[in-house]
Amino acid sequence: MGIARRKILSGLVATSAVGFTGSAAGALTKGTSSGVLEVGLSELVVNASNLRLSSAGRAAPGLGESVLLSAELEVEALGLGGSMHGVYLVIDSPGKVGASAPTSIETHYFEFPGGTLVGSGTASLDDDDDQFVVLGGTGVFAGVRGSYAATQRPLGLGGDGIANYRFTFLTQQGS
After folding, report:
1. Which of 5, 51, 78, 119 is the most exposed, having the fewest neighbouring CB atoms within 10 Å of its CB?
2. Residue 175 has pLDDT above 50, yes or no
3. Cβ-based neighbours of 8, under 8 Å, separated by 6 or more
4. What pTM was estimated for this model as a whole?
C-alpha cells in the first residue's frame, strides 16, 4: 500500500526537515478545476543512496553508449521512500575543455507512492551542480513544472553512490 495522497500533500506543508524544505505558503495543492498541481515557491529536496550505473559488466560506458541509472530515494520529512531510474547516455562536447564540459545526457524518473516526477538534462563529471528540467509528473505531481539541481556521485564512476536532487517548482495558474 502506498502513502495516501492526502498525507503526501499535507506533508509538503511541513517546514524544514532533513530531506525537505518548504513553507506553508509554498505547499503543493491539488487544483479543483484544472486538475493541475498548483505550486507556490517550493523546494523539494530528495536524498539518494546507492546511485549506480548498470553497464553490462563494463567498468565505465564509452562514447555513444547508454547505461541505466538507479538509486534509492528518501524524503525523510514525509516518511517517504522511493526509487529513481534513469538513462545515462555518454556524449562528447566538441569545443569544450575541462571537467565542466557535459559528458552525459540523462533522463530521470523519480518514483514515489502517489506519483512520479520526470526530468532531463546534461551532466558533467565536475563537482558543480548539474541543472535539469522537470518534464512533468503523474499522480500528485500531474501538471507540475520546474527544474532541479543535482549533485550525483554514482558508484562505478569513482563516486560514493550518494546524490542530492533539489527541485524548484513554478506556480501554475489554473484556468
Report:
1. 5
2. no
3. 78, 80, 112, 113, 114, 115, 140
4. 0.73
